[in-house]
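Shipment paperwork, digital attachment
Item: protein structure file
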Amino acid sequence: MTKFIHVILFVFFAIHLSAQNFTGQWKGEFVDKSSAFTGWGGDRCEYVLEIECDGSKVTGYSYTYFSDGGKRYYTICKLNGTLNKASKYIEVKETERTKTNVPVTIRNCFQIHRLTYFQKDDEQILEGTWIPVPNQEGDCGFGTTVLSRRVLQKNPAYYNNNVTKATPKKTTPAVKPKPAPATPPVAKNTKPPVTRPKPKITIPPPVVKAEIKKDKPPVVKKEPEKKPLEVIPEKVINSNKLPDPPVVREDVVQKKINEPVFEKRNSNLIKTIEIDNASFTVSLYDNGEIDGDSISLFFNGKLVISHQRLSDKPLTLKLEVDENKEINELIMYADNLGSIPPNTALMLVNDGDNRYEVRISSDLQKSGVIRFVHKEKNKQ
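Attachment content:
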């Protein structure tokens, strides 16, 4: 009996550890605790970690933001590190600076962050310390780091709530009874003009005109009226009917003007996800600081979202796989680069009980691509 209890406790402990998924985006700040450090425009900076964990290996990016002299600065760095799930400890090291607008006059140092995981209510927290990467010029300081993220609720419930909220607004057309009383007066105004027989007054003048015509029949000049033999103009008309459709062409041009125009760009395959269900939901957030990123989405070549801004509120849509295709592609097209390039998004995929997080990056040359493979389709 005791062995059985030990086995249950071991399985519970293993499941609990596996539930701690460090992969994803963590937002917060780091604080400088040294007195000599004068970089970064102050002692407190916004900090974002965007990491992916594969076993004990950690890779990803860091985003640092601060203001100095009324101007906003940023730095994006590649990083790598290690993860110990048993002790809930993660250590990441910035290795390469990919993008920055920090001037040379402000110190811009690489950092090492040593963080421990714990959870409070619906919030997951990484807390610890940071030190500068060795062998850098000058005093880069040291301090503390606190990052967090919330455990998001299932997106299908959010999607259904949007549907229920939209329906009652459509069922309250209180303006419809007004056009009913407006129609009878229109009918009354049309009846009086019909009862006025004005054509009877015009009967005498045509009799006089007919007598005049009887005096002029000898004139042979009226014979040219018999020239319905104008077969040549008919041929001309028939030949003109072919180019006449320019009217339709103008309509086509107007439609094309109203449609959004997308330039051809290269594709960058970011990830392939195997899904269990034929339908799933996708939600997209701004990845990092909300800086006005706008995107359009194509699923299997069809436009499903056009020129929508990313924010901390999700853009949620329900997608269905095409059973005739082995691979279904979702393409994120960057409409702009926002104030902090490139255009980045955090995508959450809900496939029944399965949940996936993917970070997508697009620019004006390449579009990020996510592929979905239906497992049931492959089994057949």
